[in-house]
Design a protein that fits this description.
alpha+beta; 4-stranded antiparallel sheet; 2 helices; globular
């Protein structure tokens, strides 16, 4: 199934740490038998409201293919990544 994953990372992360976070997400998707078909980095943007004391966030949007049975597993891994402020995983039409 095709999904879209939007992440908001903490804005003060260094480039190295941010790259490592995105690499981990790629590994999680690959280990779950899925694949990332597109990565769109939006960069720093102002948030609509303050999240954990942050007024800005670093946005990344993925299009990915993943088996429906692995979605909960991926979401649980994302929940425990401290560098992610928010994420949203939605099914594409």
């Amino acid at each position: 199934m095709k999904y879209e994953l939007m992440l908001i990372l903490k804005p003060m992360l260094t480039e190295d740490i941010r790259a490592n976070v995105l690499k981990k997400i790629d590994e999680y998707v690959t280990k779950a038998g899925g694949k990332i078909t597109k990565e769109d980095i939006w960069g720093k943007r102002h948030l609509a409201y303050i999240i954990e004391g942050n007024e800005e966030g670093y946005y990344v949007v993925y299009n990915l293919e993943l088996d429906k049975s692995k979605v909960t597993e991926l979401q649980n891994k994302l929940k425990f990544m401290n560098d992610i402020l928010r994420f949203l995983l939605v099914l594409e039409d």
